[in-house]
Amino acid sequence: MEGEPSVPYKLNIFSKILILLVLLLIPIVLLYSYTNRITNNVVQDQIQSSNLNQLSFFMHQLDGDVERLAMSPVILGSDPYIREFIDRNESPDYDMLKEQSRIIQKLSLQSVSSGWVNELTIAIPHGKQVLSSSIFVNGTDTWPWDSPIKRTWTYEERKGDNGVGSFVREISEPIRAQVAGQANVLYQVRFSVQNMIQLLDVYKQDKRSDPFLVDGQNRAVFNSSSNPSITHTIHERLAGQSLPLTGQVQFEIANQQYLISFVKSEQLDWYLVDYVPVQKILSPITMTRKLFYVSIALLLVMSILASFLLYRNVQIPIGKMIQSVQQVKRGDLSARIAYRAKNEFDFLIQRFNEMAEQIQVLVEDVYAEKIRSREATLKQLQSQIHPHFLYNSLFFIINSAEMEDKESVVAMSQNLAEFYRYTTRVEKQSVRLRDELDLVGHYLTIQNLRIHRLKYEINVPEEMLDEWVPRLILQPLVENAIVHGIERSAEGDRITITGEQKDGWNRLIVEDNGGGLDEAGLDKLLKQLEAPMSDEIGCGTWNVHHRLYYQFGEGSGLTFERVHDGGLRAVLTWKHNSQESDPATEVIKR
Prior knowledge:
Shape: elongated
Main location: membrane
Membrane topology: Multi-pass membrane protein
Protein name: HAMP domain-containing protein
Strand order of the largest sheet: 2-1-5-4-3
Radius of gyration: 56 Å
Keywords: Cell membrane, Kinase, Membrane, Phosphoprotein, Transferase, Transmembrane, Transmembrane helix
Organism: Paenibacillus germinis
């Protein structure tokens, strides 16, 4: 119902239970998310540190094995039999073949004593002699005597090794010799990278990783089951970087993050590299997090299901009863509850329907009587329009006839006839605004015939013309503007009627440039509008204000304003209602 104060919204039981559940779950989820993030970071750091430590330990073992092989030439140089062979190599009474056989046997024993497959070789440049633990090298006559001495571990690939590289290290006597031909004797130790591949395979099997070795010259040693697409990509990216002795980096390969750990070998000057998918590191935490969220979701679903049962068995019946009570409060006494709760609420619903039916019977009788009373009141108010206008018009017709002014008589008679045909129709108390404006047009034409200086202008938007208004709501204001404004001022000659719509409200402004009112007179006029009707203000203006307020409710009515350059402005305000059939029916409902 228009003018009814809005009822503040209150949460129902179902909404309160859901909000309570959400408020209980939110701290749990937030706390878990925070702890999970902290745990995730700690575990990730621990796993990364563990991976790097394991890789460093493996590299330490590898360096230990390589270092033990590096000591082999030193041990050979200290062996008395080998020293004797070198010193007496050119002595005529020295049994060369027997001593060569003994030295080769020593080299073989020394070679097999290591855990790695290796070659120990003694080269004597002066005699062009080469003694080795390998039968393929022993006694060769193609030794590279002009090659630089490899004092550090050097990677190379020999012919006949089927592309399998090896690491070589040499010691010369004297130490200042630069190439093999300048030395008195050259000790060489060589081991195949196959040894390292086997170690990488063992490490990969234990740790479920994919380690490999790289150097700074785009050379690499992979394990036997290495993933070529990933390892080659990592090798290419690391080759262009300056790496510290140990460290970790993350690369994105094939839309997946990988954690790459690397450790530099002190013996070989190569890097041992291993990688692991970051998701693999965090998979246990991820699984735990998913299980937690699934549990929370199941708990929430069960809570919502329990709340829904409460909603269906309690909240819906209460809502139906509240809805029906609101309908009755708005005046719809035909409201009934057509819902079967199948519980204790059925009794309340049945009693409510019986009560509403009894109230409807009683109120309809009272409404019928009120309707008849209000219709009589409106017709009585309409009949109170002052009759002096008719008298003046008739005297004008008489005077014009005596003066034989036929055109004025005809114009006055036609407009007067239209005016009274409209005002005497009392069967319908609400009309469209366009009908009221037509009436005012006839009225102003009549007044213009009497007062020749009178000018008027009507500017009302087309969309306002279909608005419903009470009958004779505008003519009394125009009449007051002429009687109390234009006729009492020698300079007054203009009446303007303006319409406007804004924010669901209609405003119709009647303004004249007559004598107007001072502040005291305006305050008195506004107070009289709210007071009971009296002879001081006249029934027309009072009727206009109260009929608008009575029909359209709070905020509707009549008010007056002063005009800066003289005159008075009357403002009619009422709610937008062009979509309704007839607001008079709403008056009856109230």
